[in-house]
Protein 1
Amino acid sequence: MIGAKDFGIDLGTDYIRMYIPGSNIVTEPDLVVYHRGTDQIAAIGQKAERLLKSDAERYVQYELKDRGEIHDYSTTKDTLSLLIRENQRFSFLLHPDLLMAIPHGSSVIERKAIRDLCVQSGFNEKGLYFIDELLASAIGAGLNVTDAVGCMIINIGAGNTQAGVFSLGGLVSSGSLHIGGRDLDRLIVDHVRKNYGIMIDISAAEKAKMQIGSVLPHDMGEVDQMSVEGRNVRTGLPDSVVITTAEMREAIEPAVADMLDCIGGVLEDTPPEIAADLLESGITACGGGIKMKGLKELLQERTGLTIHEADRAQEAVIRGVQKVMQDPSAWTGIYSELLQ
Ligand SMILES: Nc1ncnc2c1ncn2[C@@H]1O[C@H](COP(=O)(O)OP(=O)(O)OP(=O)(O)O)[C@@H](O)[C@H]1O
Ligand SMILES: [Mg+2]
């Protein structure tokens, strides 16, 4: 029986999402600040953003994840400890239980390291459960994973692309890679630096991607363009440049191609009788990355399958965690290979 009744978490590259029974899903930016010159954590998420805005000199900022993986275990440990402390509901609970979503494809060693850090953060060692993000997102997106009829989920986040086909409660085929929306932003930053000698922030690149970006080749002729501001790498002075949809599409193409290859590979690995089910049900897509303009159309074109964007696509994983926590007996046993 999955006994985690206290705390559910999806530690994403862009956002930390939490579910605590009795309250709503909470989403916080993946940002942590420490008091400068100390090892004292000051705040996470929006509160950390406010502290940085009010007095940037006093704080040092960190992100927990890079390219879809935890890259700083000690900061993550401090963050989880702070989350336990900040939740009044746990003031009487020394060591709360935890159900944590783990990216598909994490190695046994990574899982062991995450388990250790959760215990060191103060979670109950005996009440610690992991759920594969693919399974959580499929459940959260409302797919009937126990059905004999196959269904497919893809999750394109900021740091990961994950894809899987389920049938009879098991994974028939799956794949993942550490490439997501943040990599598109990085490629835009590189493009502007190489071609115009201007260094722009990754947040400026993300804004341009969302405002005028498109992955569809036939949008190449579009005249969409916008001005992005940064710093001239030669003069060191503020500078700006106008970039277009077409050049951005070209810049992000390598990462988009990798995402498409990952999803195509999963389809190739799917036995024909289950692949045939997908002709009817199509592919359900979640994660913020699927909102990239033209991506659903491009995927549809490449796979020949209908792409449905899940309702509240960025919350699919944590909503799956919530469903499992609310009715643990419905999921125990069937998914033992994906729950540990
Ligand atoms: N309208 C949009 N157009 C393009 N990209 C978008 C849009 N909205 C969100 N995104 C991208 O979605 C990504 C965030 O998605 P999500 O919240 O699913 O990531 P995450 O769960 O934090 O990361 P991961 O699961 O990969 O660790 C960002 O890269 C963001 O730029
Ligand atoms: Mg995610």
Protein 2
Amino acid sequence: MEITSDQINSLKEKLLSSKQENLNFQKNFSQEISGEKMGDMVDLANSNLSGKLETLFRARYVEKDKELNRALDKITEGEYGECEECDGPIAIRRLELNPTALRCVACQEKIELN
Ligand SMILES: [Zn+2]
């Protein structure tokens, strides 16, 4: 493993702050949506849309939270930075850009091409 514990720690901080951001975003969005519904009860079309958006955003939130938890679990288990496909190391530059990356660039490209 080429990643140092300092690097892991700073990535872990990034993951934890992303979790918080993700949660805040979801909270703010829900508040906005419910505020809008209250102020605009007669506009059924609009509230349907709001409901759809809320479902969409909630799904996005859950998905992202899962990804972040998965990366944090990997740190705990000492498996962080290993590619899920080939068990090779994921480049630190890649992890710094995307701390939830599960695969090395080569494997990710293979999956995206399929
Ligand atoms: Zn790989």
Protein 3
Amino acid sequence: MRIVVITDTHGRLHIVNNLVRELDADVVIHCGDIGLMSHKRVSKISNRELSLHIRHSSLDDAVRRNAFDLPRSEKIRIVLEHNLLGEFDRYLEGEETFVIPVYAVWGNHEDGFLLNQLLSGDLSIPNLNFLTAYSDIVLDDWIRLTGVGGNLVPPNLFTKQQPTHPKPQMSFLDWARLAEVLEHTHDNEQQLWMVTHVSPGKEPLLENFSLHLRPDFWFSGHMGAPLLQHYSLFTYLDDYEFYLRYQQQYQYYKALWDEKIGSNSSERNGFHEDEVELMRRWHGLLECPITPSEDAYLPDKVESRTSANYTKGTMFFNLPDAYYGGYLVIDTNPTDRSFEFQTYGQWTPPVQRK
Ligand SMILES: [Fe+2]
């Protein structure tokens, strides 16, 4: 099976079918910022979002430079005149269609109203499927796909996210649901592939979730990396170092939990009682599963430091933007469960050599 993984199309949706045809792919995984926007809803789109569409367009430099300073009416005029919200309208109107199944999480630059309509079934786009705790997607009988969409905004982790929020975010409830579903349904004979928009490499909380949920592969986007970034935690830190790296974040999230969801809190932050119960059941996801020992970091304890191998569990892939031509192709071989990877991106050094 040939799987193309892409991210951050930001409305340039023709890229998807072009790649599928060029690479003869069977399935697409999309890590978010699809470009779920409609010109019909331009009046509802935030000023910042309009400015970003102008800034990242191919219009004249002068217009792009001033994108954030223009009056709103001018931004709307430019966006409409140059069709800057992208091609999703063509899919909404049935003029275009994805030629093979696309399994996607949503990013932070989608219109939450449209997203909510798609998730609730009020709108549907053939072959566009969203990955959530409840999506039950298995590729080739041995690869279970799952995912959590939206941005991670730490102060909002324990606040219920309204589905129509203009900048979609994840909450801890998404992870509690996912953990609950996996506990009851995951088949250990299958691989588990996780998809998020946010990069776990930037959010140790997500890396900590990986130590609990043990996905085999984890794909993400959002960062605008010039080429595929590929790592396992093990390649640069061991279990004890991860524990140290995560501790401050754990203290932060624990305090936030106590404030928002803790037993004395009468505020439910928009969650129903059963949702609070589910989050309480999975509170342990926030904790680092590694038990530290005082001397674990001494050089002569290397053997015992690495013995638990928590950090070897997951391979992380952060994708370059499809918007700029980046992608990853995975050829899977179910017979021996091997993989072949090809990737493409454009390397533009962030710092010029002298
Ligand atoms: Fe993003």
Protein 4
Amino acid sequence: MLMHIRKALFFTGLITLFSSNAWAQNNDFKFSPEMVSHNIYSIISPSFGLPTAENKGWNSNSYFFVTEQGVLVFDTGSSEAIGKSIKAAIKTVTNQPIRWIVNSHSHADHWLGNAGIADDNTEIIAKKQAANTMNKYGKDDVKAFARMTKGITGNSQLLYPSKLLTSIEKRSLGNMDIEFIFSNNGHSEGDVLMWLPKQKVVFGGDVLSSDWMPIIIPDANVPNLIATLNKVIKLNPDVVLTGHGNVTTVESVKRDAKLLTHVWQLVKSGYQAGKKPNEIITQARAELTSSYAPLYKNFTSAIKEQITTMYKMQSA
Ligand SMILES: [Zn+2]
């Protein structure tokens, strides 16, 4: 999810104080993992957007799969407490140890749960650039999330990636063949997607979308995002797992690639022709609403944000 919290830090006041009792009650998640493919499970948050008191910080998805040698967890949520709840949910499925955690990227709703899940020997895998950002902003992110959730996400302990991916890697983890795919800053600096070629399942983090529009933040590289979507389409996955929203199929990836290609072209040519963002937004709504509004829960609001962000990228 997009994190403008670093800016928000400057505008918010003191950290909300909270009692440990209230914190414990508020963090009583009972996650029920759903099997999405053989030995692969999802924990899907119904909430989209930033962590809030209402969603108790649970605004992103986590996934895990079970191998003969242990469990791999993909993304760990917005707090240590959520991580603990994910771990408890895993224990309802298997007694295998948690051997690997993959953090799809540095946005704090995808990794602050690490400390709640990891055992002593758990390898935490991420892209090097993402790990750098985590190290730089992790402490601020914990405080910001605590403010945004009125203290509910608490004072999560930070556990950083220990295994840093630098180039395209294929690995066999407990008899599961895995390929890591890099988006080259498609969504954020240091995104990593995970592809299981035998099972034909892709774990996309925030590079892939299902119910909601693709998340475009100012740091995103839209052409590289589109290229990554096209790469995923070529893999032809049976199951597409996203950072937010329900489990989906390759049709969502095709939809996003087509939409983003159209919008990016519209913004680029509009900018070159000297159009103002509002003119491009009006044009985009006229051209795209009937086809795309039924395909996303937030088309109308997100198209405006996307174009505003993409317009600023043209002059950068
Ligand atoms: Zn994100």
